[in-house]
Amino acid sequence: xxxxxxxxxxxxxxxxxxxxxxxxxxxxxxxxxxxxxxxxxxxxxxxxxxxxxxxxxxxxxxxxxxxxxxxxxxxxxxxxxxxxxxxxxxxxxxxxxxxxxxxxxxxxxxxxxxxxxxxxxxxxxxxxxxxxxxxxxxxxxxxxxxxxxxxxxxxxxxxxxxxxxxxxxxxxxxxxxxxxxxxxxxxxxxxxxxxxxxxxxxxxxxxxxxxxxxxxxxxxxxxxxxxxxxxxxxxxxxxxxxxxxxxxxxxxxxxxxxxxxxxxxxxxxxxxxxxxxxxxxxxxxxxxxxxxxxxxxxxxxxxxxxxxxxxxxxxx
Length: 316
What we know:
Shape: globular
CATH class of the largest domain: Alpha Beta
CATH topology of the largest domain: Rossmann fold
Strand content: 15-25%
Order of helices and strands: HHEHEEHEHEHEHEEHHEHEEEEHE
């Protein structure tokens, strides 16, 4: 069990939140709340474009950092310090771009996307760049990677992280992801803007601003993004749709809507060394496409991470 946050009793859930998640989780609800109101383990990804995993481990361990392998990511580690430090982002290794401070579940979408050197790839909602730089790392700085986002403010952290990590095959674009057309990509990542209900551990204000009325609006944008991503995907190419939300409307609902429209799309199973929960096949009286059962749904209490949802889609 992770360490509870101080004064956790002050973070009360709204009735809508409690009713919804009790109906989804049943007996698991209390465990979900316990983990959501506990400290999140700090984790890093080694940037193999600049340093080997072995050399990075040696550098940090000499400085009393303790690294624990993340089972589903070869370059990923949970980090602690012998003297209680938590500021891994203040190390020289971070400033040199040897590591990226990235939540462990956030590393999953690029792994499932499996980009290769020489391919043409797009990250449609790229800022601040955690998944973009991970994709470039797997591409070994070869091929072309388009990193797109929708506002100028989001360009700043994206550009800084791309530069810090030594990415040389990336082009940054500024526009709504729905505007993409006339391209044919080998791989497409749609890490869609979402309610962020899987990241309560990083942002407790999510509990205060929780509003079920926002989910249909978000789902509309998410459907547009997954449709556009698929339209610019080559035949035989792979699209990964992901969110850090635990809401069915933003996850199974979006994928189900998409599959009902596209008979040439196939959901692929994801094989990762990770504990997972069953995706929802029905919610609020709506039955979802049966193939959403192949999606990856992760609750915070499954692996002591953020909550996450990932779907791998191939264009036949």
